[in-house]
Amino acid sequence: MNRFALNAVGSALNSLALASPSEAGKHILRLFSSPRTGRLHAGDRAFLETAKWGKLVVKGLDVQYYVWENTGPTVLLAHGWESNSARWQVLIDRLIKQHYQVVSLDAPAHGESGGTEFNAILYADFIAAVTEKFQPDFAIGHSAGGMALGYLLAHHTSQFRKVALLSTPSDLRQITGVFGRMLGLSARAMEGYAEQARQKFGHDLDYFSVAEFAKSISIPCLIIHDTSDPTAPHADAQRVAQNWSDAQFITTEGLGHSLQGEVVYRALLEFLGS
Hints:
The chain is of the alpha/beta class and 274 residues long.
């Protein structure tokens, strides 16, 4: 969506908020939960067809998963917003060479999974279902996948031996604030959104904080974050690491939010194998 379109959408929502913050909030919640991209294209399929495909059903939605069978421990991969399992191709190649079995899943409304709406709680339910089936030893989450893992670990018993969080935002209020500023949304419109989110999820936005969830999680965690990440502030990762009782924190430079680089792959393999 170009700047003109963003401004037009923001202006319309701000106008609606003047008359009805709740109605504006409903539209904003739907907008913030609706990925524009992330479905598979031809290049994604070519790589993912090297795996075995399977589906589970969670809350009436198909959960698409992919398995690269191998003889070693199992690693679960959870991608981020507007992405899909193909984003892990380089890491998966390296994991396979080290004899790990790899299981990846597509998030709600992403890849080949069902639904039109995304949120971290529903994603955590998807991850929980795949975890129950495959009993992975390790889990790696990128961005929103890391947020979903953080929520899952704080609310459900887990058998993961270790987890890794890559470019993971901490606070839902902060990340939705970024979207709000992109659209130029008014304080009144954002307050309407916050109230609709509270009604839908049963908690205020401030409740959804990986840094706060970390205080109750004790399994070893590797946190990797880039200083130039434009989406999730580096300070978020620092707070998560400080609150996590057994965390290693690695800072990179120049890799941005995607964190695709040899230094990341080497750090992950060393962490899993240590």
